[in-house]
Amino acid sequence: MRLLVRLFAATSVVTMLVMGGFAYLEVREERARLQQDLQRRAALIADAVREAAEPLVVRGAKGGFERVLRRFGRADRGIAIYDQFGSLIDATLDIKPYLGPLSPFVTDVISAAEPCGCTSRRWCATSAPSARSPWSSTPTISSRAS
Description:
Layout: H1 2-59, H2 65-72, E1 78-83, E2 88-91, H3 104-112, E3 124-126, E4 137-142
Antiparallel strand pairs: 1-2, 1-4, 3-4
Helix pairs in contact: 1-2
């Protein structure tokens, strides 16, 4: 009887360890998939914002960015539009108080001209300038830090 209890306990422990290991791997894989999906969506939105803001920048318009921000911004998605030097042109109201006039991180992302993920609760995406016009504004999308 004691042997049976020890065998049952050992089998239960091994089963729990295997189940826990597989659950951990599944969660890690799902998290990576969700991060990849978030990066893809942010890159698509960055391209859409770039296409909408490009005519305003080419014309040298000082206004009109509010309409672009209203169109693409949501409560859970803050949008900031920067010039080629990393200076803030305009941003949605929910993230504007947290943004400084210049950002070295944004300048680095713009110079790399490729999407770049931030750490932990923030994420940024940029859209490279189009080949047809050397415009001076690169949209940057960042989610609100909770």
